[in-house]
Design goal:
7-stranded antiparallel beta sheet, 3-stranded antiparallel beta sheet, 1 helix, mainly beta, 2 domains
C-alpha cells in the first residue's frame, strides 16, 4: 500500500515492538510518517526495514490502517474502511474492550475503551464466519 493519504491524520495507535507495546494517540507529521504518544517517529516508507516493529494499528472512528509482520511474506499492509467493507459482509457487530493503565489490575483503572468491529458473512451451512475485524475509537 503506497497511498498513505487515506490513513487517518490523527487517532489511536497500537504498536507492538519486540521489546515494548505503545498505545496512545498519534498525529501524522507529514504524508508518510507519524509520531506516537511516546515520541517515536515512524516512517511508513521505511516500515519494512524496522525489524523491531511486529504489528501496527492506526485507527479512528471510521477506518484502520494495519501493518503486520509475517514470517513468509514480510510486512502486510491493509486499510479497513467501514464505508467500503460493509458492502462485502452481511453483518457486523462491535465489542468494547477496556485498555488498562500500565500495572493496573482492575476495571476501574482503565484509560479508555476500544471497539473491535467484527465483520460477518455466512457460509453454505449458514454458520457465521468472522474473517475480518478492525479496531475503532469509542467514547
Amino acid at each position: 500500500m503506497n497511498d498513505y493519504m487515506e490513513i487517518p491524520d490523527q487517532g489511536t495507535a497500537f504498536a507492538v515492538y519486540r521489546d515494548r507495546i505503545v498505545y496512545g494517540k498519534y498525529q501524522k507529521s507529514d504524508a508518510d510518517s507519524f509520531v506516537l504518544s511516546d515520541g517515536t517517529l515512524v516512517s511508513l516508507v521505511m516500515i519494512g526495514q524496522n525489524t523491531d516493529l511486529l504489528e501496527l494499528h492506526l485507527f479512528d472512528r471510521n477506518r484502520e490502517y494495519r501493518c503486520v509482520r509475517t514470517r513468509q511474506r514480510g510486512m502486510l499492509e491493509s486499510l479497513i474502511d467501514d464505508k467500503r467493507i460493509s458492502a462485502e459482509y452481511e453483518d457486523s457487530y462491535m465489542e468494547e474492550i477496556y485498555v488498562l493503565e500500565k500495572g493496573a489490575d482492575q476495571k476501574e483503572q482503565f484509560i479508555q475503551k476500544v471497539g473491535v468491529v467484527n465483520y460477518i458473512h455466512y457460509n453454505a451451512d449458514d454458520l457465521a464466519v468472522i474473517d475480518q475485524y478492525r479496531l475503532k475509537e469509542v467514547e
